[in-house]
């Protein structure tokens, strides 16, 4: 006698009518279904009101239940299929996940622009709207009253944190002084992007050349459709000084020797272009690139950006330090005009000890367009932003399913600060209208409209266009990287630098300021999530507004001195790779005494 089948629910066998008296074993469920199709009943659950089972009669008619419409028929088909093929149940989780991924891919998490709070953008949440003009209208009388009654300007004593130990440059202790061995070949790189992305590529290329024991050819610059600057290396940087400063560390040449050029038919495109992984390790270069450069005599890497890991041996880090902070200085024409501009800012601010604030204001049209944030929300703004997005990022913002959530962007601190918001922030921190401010920026979006309130709050405001004459600026017009170099230098020597949007400009400038100012960045990096809440509250009191912004300033002071973490960039955090600790040698007046 056979036991019950594990596939069934205990079907009772009927004795055979044949001459055999034995009981037949249970038949296969598959065969059983086929034979009894006309009169079998499927019982699904037991959820009827009478506590009994709901039954569907299979066969030519639909028995006790008539299916009235397509939905009922579809439901019946699904239930029948699931029951017949119980293995389908195993696929249910995978089916659910697939549908969810398909849904998310269709809707998109990317921020068509939602201006009415649709598409999941809840504009009722605090910090979602641009209401800074209303906040300014309420708080301006208090700002004006405090400025008129101020007896001392915060600029004179803004950085109160006095570290027990200061940091001093010690590049020559980390860079190797050994005589250069015979070169393995030539390294040619192409730097892309704007001024500071080019700077990143150049410094990393020096480090890679040192790692490979290769001869570096002066980097070429890729013409970028956004920056639109045709400048070559020597137009922006001092080429002779660059080669001289690194002469004992890495061999650098202006071009390939004639013999090498002949080998490649005087066509640089014939030189193999290596496609390197981003953030490649030193081991990767030694194992993959060295054999190639030795075999071929020359290799190209184009584009060359972020192609070397942050963590490299100390001697290679030393090359990065030496390149960025010492060897890579601007060309003579840039240095001369930039020095005049700094001198003019110092003289203008003589009443405050020659100290001034510099602000990196990222409110150019392309930046506002890329951020997908809404400001006045008018039709003119929408039209201009759509045109700007299409001009610079063809089709990127018109992809099917792409959703932009301006409110969420603002709450997340991703919206560029307007000139009005920068002025309100500085006033709230305690800077009065006697403070001299230098604004580093490109062409401000609707400058006449948006710059007016900042000038109202801080009348002593300068830009490169007001600080230098049209004749002085003429050689630089049409060259965004050279103009950015002027801004960079004036910001570098300010008492306070204000970063408003991130990017490579503050990334490098903050590190350079730490290198110059004993490890302290002297930089205000505001918490833009908190600012979004403050600027979206027209009912805020001046006292509460000031308190929160002064806390933000103190936080910037504390975070001014930071050492590099394993995942951090040496160009922003030069300690301890490029700088060493020294015992505090300050006297009561803040002057350094007897430091080596």
Structure description:
The chain crosses the membrane at residues 88-109. The protein is an alpha/beta fold and 596 residues long. Helix content is 42%, strand content 9%. The protein has 23 helices and 14 strands. Strands 4, 5, 6, 7 and 8 form a 5-stranded parallel sheet that branches. α17 links the parallel β10 (437-440) and β11. α8 (239-245) runs antiparallel to α11 and α16 runs parallel beside α17.
Layout of helices and strands:
Blueprint: H1 29-35, E1 41-44, E2 54-57, H2 70-84, H3 88-107, H4 132-148, E3 165-169, H5 171-174, E4 186-191, H6 195-212, E5 215-217, E6 220-221, H7 233-236, H8 239-245, E7 252-253, H9 258-263, H10 282-296, E8 298-301, H11 314-327, H12 332-348, E9 357-360, H13 365-371, H14 379-392, H15 406-411, H16 419-429, E10 437-440, H17 447-457, E11 461-462, H18 464-467, H19 470-473, H20 480-492, E12 496-499, H21 504-516, E13 523-524, H22 528-535, H23 542-558, E14 579-583
Parallel strand pairs: 4-5, 4-6, 4-8, 5-7, 9-10, 9-12, 10-11, 12-13
Antiparallel strand pairs: 1-2, 3-14
Transmembrane segments: 88-109
Protein name: O-fucosyltransferase family protein
InterPro entries: FucosylTrfase_pln (IPR024709), GDP-Fuc_O-FucTrfase (IPR019378)
List keywords for this structure.
alpha/beta; 596 residues; disordered N terminus; 42% helix; five-stranded parallel β-sheet; 9% strand; disordered C terminus
């Amino acid at each position: 006698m056979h036991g019950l089948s594990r596939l069934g629910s205990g079907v009772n066998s009927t004795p055979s009518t044949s001459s055999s008296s034995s009981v037949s074993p249970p038949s296969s469920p598959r065969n059983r279904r086929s034979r009894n199709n006309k009169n079998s009943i499927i019982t699904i659950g037991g959820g009827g009101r009478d506590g009994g089972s709901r039954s569907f009669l299979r066969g030519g008619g639909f028995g006790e239940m008539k299916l009235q419409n397509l939905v009922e028929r579809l439901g019946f088909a699904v239930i029948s299929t699931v029951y017949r093929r119980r293995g389908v149940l195993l696929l249910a989780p995978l089916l659910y996940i697939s549908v969810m991924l398909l849904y998310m891919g269709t809707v998109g998490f990317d921020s068509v622009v939602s201006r009415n709070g649709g598409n999941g953008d809840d504009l009722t949440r605090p910090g979602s709207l641009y209401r800074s003009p209303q906040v300014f209208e309420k708080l301006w009388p208090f700002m004006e009253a405090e400025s008129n009654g101020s007896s001392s300007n915060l600029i004179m004593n803004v950085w109160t944190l006095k570290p027990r130990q200061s940091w001093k440059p010690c590049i020559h202790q980390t860079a190797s002084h050994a005589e250069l061995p015979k070169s393995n070949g030539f390294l040619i790189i192409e730097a892309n992007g704007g001024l500071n992305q080019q700077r990143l590529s150049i410094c990393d290329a020096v480090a890679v050349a040192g790692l490979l024991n290769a001869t570096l050819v002066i980097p070429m610059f890729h013409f970028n459709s956004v920056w639109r600057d045709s400048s070559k290396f020597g137009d922006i940087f001092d080429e002779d000084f660059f080669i001289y400063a690194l002469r004992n560390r890495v061999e650098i040449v202006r071009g390939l020797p004639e013999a090498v050029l002949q080998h490649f038919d005087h066509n640089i495109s014939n030189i193999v272009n290596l496609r390197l992984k981003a953030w490649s390790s030193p081991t990767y270069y030694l194992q993959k690139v060295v054999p190639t450069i030795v075999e071929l005599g020359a290799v190209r890497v184009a584009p060359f950006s972020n192609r070397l890991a942050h963590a490299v041996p100390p001697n290679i880090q030393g090359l990065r330090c030496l390149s960025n902070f010492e060897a890579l200085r601007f060309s003579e024409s840039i240095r001369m005009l930039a020095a005049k501009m700094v001198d003019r800012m110092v003289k203008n601010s003589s009443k405050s000890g020659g100290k001034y604030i510099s602000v990196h204001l990222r409110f150019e049209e392309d930046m506002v367009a890329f951020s997908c944030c809404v400001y006045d929300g008018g039709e003119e703004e929408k039209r201009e932003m759509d045109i700007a997005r299409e001009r610079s990022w063809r089709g990127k913002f018109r992809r099917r399913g792409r959703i932009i959530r301006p409110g969420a962007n603002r709450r997340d601190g991703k919206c560029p600060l307007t000139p009005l918001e920068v002025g309100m922030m500085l006033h709230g921190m305690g800077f009065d209208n006697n403070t001299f401010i230098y604004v580093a920026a490109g062409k401000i979006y609707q400058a006449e409209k948006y710059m007016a309130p900042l000038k109202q709050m801080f009348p002593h405001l300068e830009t490169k266009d007001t600080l230098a004459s049209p004749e002085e600026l003429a050689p630089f017009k049409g060259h965004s990287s050279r103009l950015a170099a002027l801004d960079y230098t004036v910001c570098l020597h300010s008492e306070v630098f204000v970063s408003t949007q991130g990017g490579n400009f503050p990334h490098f400038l903050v590190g350079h300021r730490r290198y110059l100012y004993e490890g302290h960045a002297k930089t205000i990096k505001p918490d833009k999530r908190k600012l979004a809440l403050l600027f979206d509250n027209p009912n805020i009191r001046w006292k509460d507004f000031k308190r929160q912004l002064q806390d933000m300033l103190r936080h910037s002071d504390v975070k001014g001195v930071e050492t590099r973490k394993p995942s951090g960039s040496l160009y922003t955090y030069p300690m301890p790779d490029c700088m060493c600790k020294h015992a505090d040698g300050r006297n009561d007046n803040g002057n350094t005494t007897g430091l080596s």
